Amino acid sequence: MKKWYAMKGNEVRIYGSIGEDVDYTSFMNEFNSIEGDVTLKINSNGGSITEGLAMYNNLVALDKDVTVVIEGMAASMASIIAMAGKTVKMFKNSFMMIHNPHCSSGCGEADDLRKTADTLDKMRDSIVDIYKNKMKIDVEAIKDYMDKETVFTADEALALGLCDEIIDNFIGEGVELDNIQSDFKAMEAISGLQNKIESYSDDISNLNSKVEKRDELISKMQSDNDKLNNAVEEYQNKLQKVLAGGFTVEPEINNWKDALHKCSNDYVEARTKYPQAYENYMRGE
Questions:
Q1: Is 0.70 topped by the overall pTM?
Q2: Which of 99, 105, 150, 280 has the fewest C-beta atoms lying within 10 Å of its C-beta?
Q3: Please, are residues 77 and 57 in contact by the beta-carbon 8 Å criterion?
Q4: CB hemisphere CA count around 170 (13 angstroms)
């Protein structure tokens, strides 16, 4: 199912045909779960009249500020939803379109069509009341714009009161060069900080590697020390047995002496080669 809206954090986007596949109830359920004020961004050609009116009514009743930003086009019912914003902003090159409601089916006999026309007139009057709350012109002028299916630029919409602010997305007159240079300097500073963070990350990684090697060395030294102690103990036991029996076993004694000497040399070499690790080991670190 394709949705005509998306929500992320406190930002909501309407970018498809309103009410298509997903009704306004699902939209409002998600919308109401947002905590705090909301930015509603619109780029839509409109959609269902009743779905759009229901959304408008729910949005204006919320106990939170809604800022509307028209990014490309807010046409038909999308322009009505835009009117729910406490503040309506338009990009300099965006548009808003208003027109009369129309019937998409057009089926039935003459009386049916006359009833449909009466219903559309009532819908038009309801929509005019919504525009009237924002626009700085009288009702008849609003109806005239709707009859002509009028597209407004951002400047025209601002002049009529359909929007409150224009977002100038061009660099031109009125934009100070000092501000632009300041922004670039800020970006360079951020880039420099990011490079330092990456460098620190490399240093931390190298330090962790050294710590791992130190721990491996301490573990090896402990193992060698245990082997040395075991060799000494076994050598002493063998020696006592030999002395108690009144005989000598020179080859075996020499073998144990050699093993003891080797263990002792390995221990001394490790202690000499890695004095700091040895001290840490002796301190139990």
A1: no
A2: 105
A3: no
A4: 8
